[in-house]
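Board work, copied verbatim: oxoglutarate dehydrogenase (succinyl-transferring)
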Amino acid sequence: MMTEYQVSSHLFGGNAPFIEELYEQYLADPTSVDGKWREYFDRLQQTAGAIERDVPRAPIEESFRQMARKPRMVAAAGAADEKAVRQQINLLRLISAYRVLGSRNAALDPLRRMDQTYVAELDPKHHGFSDADQAKVFGTNIAGMEKASLAEVLSFLKQTYCGSIGLEYMHITRSDEKHWVQQWFESRRSTSQYNAGQKKRILKQVTAAETLEQYLHKKYVGQKRFSLEGGDSLIPAMDYLTQLSGAAGVQEIVIGMAHRGRLNMLVNILGKQPRDLFSEFEGRYTTQLASGDVKYHMGFSSDIPTANGPVHLSLAFNPSHLEIVNPVVVGSVRARQQRRNDKTGDQVLPVLIHGDSAFIGLGTNQGTFNLSQTRGYGTGGTVHIVVNNQVGFTTSDVRDNRSTLYCTDIAKMVEAPVFHVNGDDPEAVCLVIEAAMEFRKTFRKDVVIDIVCFRRWGHNEADDPFVTQPMMYKKIGQHPGVRKKYADRLVAEGVVSEAEANEMIDAYRAALDRGEHVEQTTLTDYKRNFAIDFGKYMGNHWRHPVDTAVRLGGLQRLAEKFNAVPENFKLRANVEKILKERGEMVAGNAPVDFGMAESLAYATLVTEGYAVRISGEDSGRGTFNHRHAVVHDQNREKWDQGAYIPLQHLSDSQAHFTVIDSILNEEAVLAFEYGYASSAPEELVIWEAQFGDFANGAQVVIDQFITSGETKWGRLCGLTMMLPHGYDGQGPEHSSARVERYLQMCAEHNVQVVQPSEASQIFHVLRRQMLRPVRKPLIIIMSKRLLKAKFAASPIEQFSSGAFRNVIGDTAELDAKKVKRVLVCAGQVYYDLATARAEREIKDIAIVRVEQLYPFPTEELQAEFEKYPNAREVVWVQEEPRNQGAWHQIRHRLEGCTSPKQALKFAGRPSSASPAVGYMSKHTAQLKAFVDEALTL
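↓ predict structure ↓
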């Protein structure tokens, strides 16, 4: 027997899909549907045998389909009822349309130039309503107004979705996230309710933003500053975000941004003294940095007071390559969270400030978003703020700027909500900041704020924007400015008088004349917990002595632990064999290979208190099946149950060991690890390229951060890069780590470049990286062939004694006085030369290995050359083509080690436009040719 409500509600035919949709909404939030519908669904669940709201819905959906097939009960529901029900359904569709598409008609553009394209779904007529229906009352699914007239519903929808705020959240598949955003804004009608004190603070911040820019514009005419004018609401937004962070228990905020507005941010948010900024403009600022950087690239940090305690703000140093700072920031945040044991991201918050064109245009953002929810890189969500000046750089048409409707559409890949907001409405901007902070705290994921604004001047102050945007800049010329519009609004509301608003400008200008702030904005004597002291790493030479050997007994005890697995853990046969062989190695029954040497280094470090973090594509087992830091139970499917990391189970007091199989993106991952390592000097942080060539995809990180960060910004970083390298006939893209590129960037002892040829060398160099009080990037050119080669393995005694050898002399039995030629090489080519020399029984050619290519070990190499007083030739031998490899970058250093009587020559492959040949036969012929050349007197 059908209920009266089933009949009167027209649950038949084509409306069954609508009822299913309404039921979906009921499942997420029963209070979001009309009371009668809720009552009906409650009964239906009981009828279908459902006890919990998350039970399978198949029986209930089947009941809908059955109802759709039942004959219509015309006697009980006449034509009038049918029209009423249809209108009820159409109203709900109209509400849904505003939730999905309302941002298309929001008043977002301060210049009012955006095309207000007709969106049929937002028109009541599209849904069958006429003007006569405006007073009709319907049931709604809007919380707080279950019954309302069409006119009231439209007013609500336009205020909520088409005012100064435009919302995009219906692309989110998780119902709880989607309904959270819906409820948050609908309950407020997207309208702020700030009190007079809060409004005055917002006005004060907008005044500071505009006044600083205008002051600099007049004082330093024509100098670049990348003005924020037009996007002034960013400053009250960041001020409000900082205050909200304090209230939420956030201890640190790490900020990444490009040029625009950076000077304003430094002064008005981070509290940099105006006089210091003026000194930079006037060229009077002094620095101890070797090269330094321009003022709008520099970082800064300070402690900002809030009502709930201090918050530490760090603005990351940022090179010209715009968005590349973003993964650096989230990496730094992850390290700070790790230090605090902040597993939820409640204590350290990443904030990224983007430009509109850069946000959608630069691929590093795709990589950064892709990292955001992964286990090894998540930070509990990033707050993204786009300063959307609608023009990007100088592009004259948005059709040349992107292929999406909004510059923020890239964020939809991680289903982040997007809050568009008119930059002329600072209160609305603050409101979406509040929503973003609460969403991030609730769901631990990214959220995006798109401040739609304009740019008062050109890309920089020397640029003429009228050349490409004449009509836009005519509009901008007529715009009174964000501060003036907001001040007029507050005057009209009676919050301030016009005189009070003007006094804010006068007070700020007077303070600037003194080179000071209007009021104290930073804490100068606050001592932070978890702060890192980099002082102990400053000024130490790379030759600083350190003992990296470990007693044999300690090595054996550790090896016993990391070669063990839990009971009933089924290993793959080849992995079981490798672990068994490692036991023989540490017992002294077999030489130690590279994989075991690495494991010994990590085990000793973590038990000595130095954490280890390794990431890269397939780093767990190692691309070349040599590491096996993660082993897998062959009888368990789920990773978290079937994976075991022995190096995490060495002792109860050990430092953490983390190994991550990263996403397939070199640029974002390497930038992340740089940021992490820069904030974690007590942790060995390693990024491993699957092949050394793959670092090509992260070249901007290497150029603008890793090799130059110290000389530009004074930023110390101990990041280690492992780059598989070696000419083994695997073609152009799997041979060369491009050694020449790293050596070309070497200067001022900025980095270390090593090319180890024996297993013990990797053990000692990794330990040296942490034990020595020096934090410089370490680039390891790692031979693929030597990883498992027995001839490159080392006796266990070389681990319990000795150290990293910058140069390895000839180990063959030669009469030094009879040596006529000395071959000098690096890496695996040594074994090609040594094997050929032995086969030919050559006794008058010595072979010396340079294991550290930079800083160059001049003293050690000279000492080796002096052993052979009658050698008249020194030949640099490399497997790379002549125009690549180390030759051209170290030739002058080799010449500095030779005597005037010695000739310096080269042996290697001929110059090539490609890193390597693609045919094994040609590869073999080239190898034979240069080995013959090197060994033929």
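The chain is about 40% helix and 15% strand.
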